[in-house]
Q: What sequence folds into this?
C-alpha cells in the first residue's frame, strides 16, 4: 500500500508539473536498455532450448537477459552460460541470478568458471545466512560485479550492503520495498560509493527511475508467458527496438490503462 500511494503521488506531481517522472527524478537520459528475465529450469529444457530462448529475445530487440542460475551444480550452470554466450554473441548483455542458491564457495566456483564471458552482474550469489559477508567474499574472489537488494524492503538494509562493500549494484524494488521516495534515498547513498542502481522487475515504473539518474541500469521484463499483464495492461507503452526503450514525455508515468483488458480479468 505504501508503494502504491507513493507512486500515485509521483504520478500526480508529474501531471501537475507537466513533466514525466524520469525528468522529475533527474532526467539524466531519455532511453534505457531493456533486458528480459529467463533461463528458467524445467522439464524438457535443453542447452538448445535455452539458447533459442535468448536468440528470440535478442531478435525482439532486448539488449540482454538476466539468466537464472543456482539450481544446478556450479560447473553445470556455468556450461549453460557458456553455451548461451556462444549463441547470442558478445554484444548481448548477460547477467546471472542465483536467487541465494549457493554457498559462498559454490558461488566462487561458478563465478570463476564464467568470468571470461563478460558477465554484467552476479545477483544474490549466496544463501541468506551468509548474505552480506558472503557477497563481499564472492566479489573479491571472482572480480564479478555483485548485485542484491530485491529482498531488502527498506533503505537501511541497502545501506548496510553498500557500506560493507558487498555489492557493486543495488536492485531495490519499489513494489516489494518501500516505494519510489525510498528508492531515491538508496540511489543517493549508492552514488556516493559509485554503486550502480538496477531494479527488480516492474519495467513501466523502473524505466523512469533508471533513466533519471546517472548510475541507472536496465529495466527488467518477463516473457509474455510469465507476465501476460504488462504487454496489454496499457493502451500503449514505450516500445522495445534495437536494444533500447525511449521513454515518453507524457506527464507522470504516462500510463493510460486498457479498460477492456482490465475488465476482462477483474475479480469483484
A:
Amino acid at each position: 500500500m505504501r508503494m502504491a500511494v507513493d507512486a500515485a503521488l509521483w504520478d500526480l506531481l508529474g501531471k501537475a508539473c507537466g513533466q514525466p517522472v524520469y525528468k522529475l527524478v533527474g532526467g539524466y537520459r531519455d532511453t534505457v536498455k531493456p533486458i528480459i528475465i529467463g533461463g528458467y529450469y524445467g522439464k524438457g529444457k535443453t542447452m538448445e532450448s535455452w539458447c533459442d530462448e535468448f536468440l528470440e529475445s535478442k531478435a525482439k530487440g532486448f539488449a540482454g537477459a538476466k539468466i537464472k542460475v543456482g539450481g544446478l551444480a556450479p560447473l553445470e550452470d556455468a556450461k549453460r552460460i557458456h553455451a548461451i554466450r556462444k549463441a547470442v554473441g558478445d554484444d548481448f548483455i548477460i547477467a546471472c541470478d542465483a536467487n541465494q542458491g549457493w554457498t559462498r564457495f559454490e558461488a566462487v566456483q561458478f563465478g570463476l568458471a564464467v568470468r571470461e564471458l563478460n558477465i554484467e552482474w552476479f545477483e544474490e550469489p549466496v544463501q541468506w545466512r551468509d548474505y552480506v559477508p558472503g557477497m563481499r567474499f564472492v566479489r573479491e574472489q571472482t572480480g564479478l560485479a555483485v548485485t542484491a537488494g530485491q529482498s531488502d524492503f527498506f533503505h537501511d538494509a541497502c545501506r548496510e550492503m553498500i557500506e560493507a562493500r558487498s555489492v557493486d549494484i543495488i536492485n531495490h524494488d519499489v513494489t516489494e520495498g518501500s516505494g519510489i521516495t525510498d528508492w531515491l534515498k538508496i540511489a543517493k547513498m549508492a552514488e556516493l560509493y559509485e554503486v550502480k542502481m538496477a531494479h527488480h522487475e516492474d519495467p513501466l515504473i523502473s524505466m523512469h527511475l533508471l533513466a533519471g539518474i546517472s548510475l541507472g541500469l536496465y529495466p527488467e521484463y518477463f516473457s509474455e508467458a510469465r507476465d501476460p499483464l504488462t504487454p496489454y495492461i496499457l493502451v500503449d507503452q514505450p516500445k522495445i527496438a534495437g536494444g533500447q526503450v525511449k521513454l515518453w514525455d507524457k506527464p507522470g508515468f504516462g500510463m493510460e490503462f486498457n479498460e477492456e483488458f482490465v475488465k476482462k480479468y477483474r475479480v469483484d
User: Anything to note?
Assistant: The mean pLDDT is 94.
